[in-house]
Design goal:
The chain has about 220 residues and is mainly α. It has eleven helices and no strands. Helix content is about 80%, strand content about 0%. The termini are far apart.
């Protein structure tokens, strides 16, 4: 990283993006060992570099999402929420890196006790994965968004997303048959059964739970 910093300081533009990536990685490592202040500082430096990359929106969206997550982990909720709102304002075409960052941001907001704020990035991640046509990410994003909606008591909306998630996971488990995919399908079906029960669709809930039990018993 020291070499990259020297290159950036000497005006080598092509070194800025690699340095930003390295800083985001370092921020993650620091956060993993609870060195939150240092993690935030590294994430902030990555954002500064990304703001200078006016050619593409993706690096800035990813860097901002990372900073929001680090701020939330550091207990700086107000700043984390403000940064999360800035992520939502960044334009650009759907990219896998941005979609993953939005999913991580949604999870972090939910864990920080901000379920309402968690819905928007989750919804954007679903839309991006659909646009990209990426599997199995679509199924996972749908499941996550259903969980975010359920946390707000929006059970009817949660059922719709959970049902779509089940279909994606069922397809993944069937072609080709995969034990790991079947395990994930069983988990999704169990969650789906809970949402079905909450909207009074008991028979469908029983069927979903029976299918999950059959998968677990294989």
């Amino acid at each position: 990283m020291a070499v990259l910093r020297k290159l950036v300081a000497s005006g080598v533009w092509s070194a800025e993006r690699p340095l930003s990536r390295a800083l985001r990685q370092q921020s993650g490592y620091l956060a993993a060992v609870a060195r939150h202040a240092e993690a935030v500082a590294a994430a902030e430096e990555a954002v500064v570099l990304a703001r200078g990359d006016s050619s593409r929106a993706r690096p800035l969206a990813v860097a901002l999402a990372g900073l929001a997550i680090r701020l939330l982990a550091a207990g700086r909720a107000a700043e984390g929420l403000a940064t999360a709102r800035e992520v939502a304002a960044v334009g650009g075409q759907p990219q896998k890196a941005v979609a993953r960052a939005l999913t991580d941001l949604s999870d972090a907001l939910a864990e920080a006790g901000e379920p309402e704020a968690a819905v928007e990035p989750s919804e954007r991640a679903v839309a991006m994965w659909r646009s990209l046509g990426a599997e199995p990410e679509i199924g996972a994003a749908l499941t996550g968004h259903a969980d975010r909606l359920a946390a707000l008591g929006r059970w009817a909306d949660a059922v719709a997303y959970a049902a779509e998630a089940v279909e994606h996971h069922r397809a993944a488990a069937a072609s080709p048959v995969s034990a790991e995919a079947e395990r994930k399908l069983a988990l999704v079906l169990t969650s789906y059964a809970v949402t079905l029960n909450r909207v009074g669709r008991e028979q469908e809930a029983l069927a979903a739970e029976a299918e999950a039990a059959a998968l677990r018993g294989r």
